[in-house]
Amino acid sequence: GDSVTQMEGPVTLSEEAFLTINCTYTATGYPSLFWYVQYPGEGLQLLLKATKADDKGSNKGFEATYRKETTSFHLEKGSVQVSDSAVYFCALFTGSARQLTFGSGTQLTVLP
Amino acid sequence: GAVVSQHPSRVICKSGTSVKIECRSLDFQATTMFWYRQFPKQSLMLMATSNEGSKATYEQGVEKDKFLINHASLTLSTLTVTSAHPEDSSFYICSARDRGQSTYEQYFGPGTRLTVT
User: Fold this and answer.
1) Which of A43, A100, A103 is opposite residue B111, by nearest beta carbon?
2) How far is CA A74 from CA A70, A89, A99, B61, in A?
3) What is the rounded radius of gyration, in angstroms, for the C-alpha atoms of chain A?
4) How many angstroms away from the CA of B44 is the closest CA of chain A?
5) Using CB atoms within 10 A of its CB, is residue A43 exposed (0-12), middle (13-18) or buried (19+)?
6) What is the pLDDT along chain B (117 residues), one digit of tens a residue?
7) Which residue in A15, A41, A16, A27 sits closest to A90, CA to CA?
8) In whole angstroms, what is the distance from residue A33 CA to residue B7 CA?
9) B97 CB-near residues (< 8 Å, 6+ apart)
């Protein structure tokens, strides 16, 4: 079945540090890939997405590139802020399953 | 953008009672809604998928008689936790798919924190 493996947290960084959160996936067919962010006490918000190989999703300074050859969708940001502290979920969607499959989430804490 | 609301945001109930959680799509029609459960520091576990006007499809291991889902209209789905027990305490999140959007687009509600005492 479909699965998503995410880098385990928690991750703690200083403000303005570079962020990478690794995400790899297993899926039948050609999935669409997503990163969601969950701020404390809130639901999930879509951060970015990519629907086909080599697509780059970007939003709020975050980027992720759909790499079919390595089945990866790593999240990056060049300079994190305290306000980026949240839990980040990698997810995939396939037409066959017609539902999102989530990774386990990575807690990010950015210190001033 | 598309907004999904949940009510209540927090609820505390006594063991043995039932509690209803509402999920509404505020500015779009949702043919499909999803209910997730999230344990502390863990990922979302899909509980069930509901389509407007039909019975919900439950994931393996989810008790359909305990977690009653009703998708009464294109903007409202409800989850009723019947005869709640402390182990049902969790964060419940709904999401909705806009009938006019791509099949992978889902919009998430803010979640409901259920505490059973």
Assistant:
1) A43
2) 11, 11, 21, 31
3) 13
4) 7
5) buried
6) 688 999 999 999 999 999 999 999 998 888 899 999 988 777 889 999 998 888 899 999 999 999 999 988 889 999 999 999 999 999 999 999 887 766 667 899 999 999 999
7) A27
8) 29
9) B30, B31, B32, B33, B34, B103, B105, B106, B107
Q: Is-contact A41 A31, C-beta < 8 A?
A: no
Amino acid identity for residue A76 in this structure: E
Tokens describing residue A5? 């493996």
Give how far A3 is from chain B: nearest CA, Å.
12
Task: Establish how many alpha carbons lie within 13 A of residue A102's alpha carbon, considering only the half-sphere containing its beta carbon.
Answer: 20
Q: Which residues pair with B30 in a beta bridge?
A: B98
Which residue has 């505490």 as its token pair? Answer: B115
Q: Considering only CB atoms, which chain B residues are within 8 Å of A98?
A: 103
